[in-house]
Design goal:
Oligomer: single chain
Shape: rod-shaped
Strand content: 15-25%
Order of helices and strands: HEEEEEEEEEEHEEEHHHEHEEHH
Number of strands: 16
Radius of gyration: 39 Å
Length: about 325
């Protein structure tokens, strides 16, 4: 036999009711299979159902008290309806008209090409062979964005003032002094200073003429575009060809007038500060330019097969797509 107190509590418990309604679209047509969620009771409990083909839905055996209906369907803005259900009440919700959801507009964000090039330059300035030797003039991004004139000059300046460049120039000047190259400069600290100045002037003129001034005027890219794919033979041929070919700012391959003319111009300018007895004639300037082209070809081959493996920060992907 149940305790008397329990029977009194059951008799006093409010009887449940029901909730129903109809869902339509903005034109008044029934919306089938809309998702309807009922939240009611204390503590709150959730029930879910789908609207029928005629848009109707219903919940039975709902405890009296506050409740909330949430209606959702693809393409419509979710709707909510709140109310209070009394004991044994059959609650008929007002017709629920869904509102079309706003159309989603895809916004294409286009990063300015200058910003993309700037990001690529920052990556290139991190490239150092064995972690310390500059390797700025190589891009491992096949479709790297062309540089602006300002960026070409910036890269040239960055290369010429790099501590490694200054140190290597000093080492070359020391070797020249030991071998008495450019004897007109003499020996001692003064002779070493003149050799260092001449070597550094060579580096500045060749870098700025061949990688900044002429590339800006002729709209050419001073960087080597790493290939990295294909047979060894095709990569070797590509590396050799790139000694006299470059990519234009228009994305097309063309004769590398910037590098060739830059070498000739730098050789001519060196006659202004070399000792008279050590100045090159025109024939020797052309000969040195040809040697420079061959040296560049060898350096490019090393880029294809060796240097990248020794460059910890070599990036092959484009951080941002223009």
């Amino acid at each position: 036999m149940a305790p008397a107190g329990s029977s009194q509590q059951d008799a006093a418990a409010p009887l449940p009711g029901s909730i129903s309604g109809t869902i339509v679209d903005p034109s008044g047509a029934a919306v089938a299979r809309a998702r309807v969620k009922l939240t009611s009771g204390n503590p709150p409990a959730n029930e879910e159902t789908l609207s029928a083909d005629d848009g109707q839905f219903s919940f039975g055996n709902v405890a009296p008290g506050a409740f909330q209906l949430t209606i959702a369907d693809d393409g419509f803005t979710p709707q909510t309806l709140s109310g209070i259900l009394h004991a044994r009440e059959i609650y008929n919700a007002p017709r629920i008209a869904l509102v079309l959801a706003p159309e989603k507009t895809d916004v294409e964000v286009i990063v300015p090409r200058v910003e993309v090039a700037e990001e690529q330059i920052r990556e290139e300035e991190k490239q150092r062979v064995l972690g310390f030797v500059p390797n700025f003039y190589v891009t491992y991004v096949p479709d790297a964005v062309p540089l602006t004139s300002k960026q070409k000059f910036r890269l040239a300046l960055r290369a010429t003032i790099d501590p490694v460049t200054l140190g290597l120039t000093g080492a070359v000047a020391g070797i020249q002094q030991a071998d008495n190259v450019f004897s007109g400069y003499g020996q001692g600290a003064q002779g070493y200073g003149k050799r260092y100045g001449a070597d550094y002037a060579d580096a500045i003129t060749s870098t700025f003429l061949g990688s900044a001034i002429l590339p800006s005027l002729l709209k050419q890219d001073p960087r080597y575009f790493y290939k990295g794919t294909g047979s060894a033979r095709s990569r070797i041929w590509y590396a050799v060809e790139m000694a006299v070919v470059c990519k234009g700012d228009n994305g097309r391959w063309q004769a590398n007038y910037s590098s060739i003319l830059g070498s000739l111009a730098a050789g001519g300018l060196s006659n202004l500060y070399y000792p008279p007895q050590n100045r090159d004639g025109a024939a020797l300037t052309f000969e040195n330019t040809a040697i420079g082209i061959g040296t560049t070809a060898v350096a490019n081959i090393l880029q294809e097969f060796v240097i990248r493996k020794l460059t910890p920060n070599a990036h092959s992907r484009n951080p941002s797509t223009p």
